[in-house]
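Exercise 4. Each item below gives a protein and its sequence. For each, produce the structure-token representation.

Item: Protease PrsW (Mogibacterium kristiansenii).
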Amino acid sequence: MEGEPPEMTILLLAALLPPLFLMIKIYKLDKVEKEPGGLIVKLLIFGVLTTVPAAFLEGFLISLVGGVISPKTTLFILVENFFCVGLVEEGVKYFALKKGSWNHPAFNYTFDGIVYAVAVSIGFAAAENVLYVMEYGMATAGVRAVTSIPGHCIFAIYMGISFSLAKYCEVHGNLPLRKKHLRNAIRIPMLLHGFYDFCASMKEPIWTIIFLVFIVALDVAAYKKVNEMERQDRPL
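Answer:
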């Protein structure tokens, strides 16, 4: 009908609005000192760009693992989701996060790391979402709006918590604890991401139940944690 937006525009909006909505929600939680808009945009762009090396590394590693382990086995699914996907995606997002924000003068409060990590992850999720929605349509947009997009945001929240704690330890001269928190900034999101994808990849009904319970528990835990960090926000 005349006057209606083209189908591609609708699909783009369906792909981009959920991640941008979550980015705005997290940004608004940072009540003590808002982060520079330019820095947030830069981190969003970094997140978009990380999809390229992530796709290359994932394809390479999955092919490599597939040459050693039969793709029909549970072991292959486990390795694929935790290492070929979870570790790679969270690893490239962590790299972009650290390069883009660690030494920035605006990184001066403990909640800042969460905002930065979410910005990178939302950039990644938005780019990924556009590709999926353009290929599979509106139904995929609806499913991903309540699963994958919040998932990326939640993984980023946990990355950002450890990232901020590491920065706090560096400022206060505790270098051994700094290293521990930086490792956790990759390790915790990787484990959450890997388990999420592993559950989603399994075909048995029990895994669907586990997947749904895991999503709800993760959402509740992340909501509580991010609000706790906002209340306890303090200078580094």
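Check: Residues 74-101 form the longest helix (28 residues).
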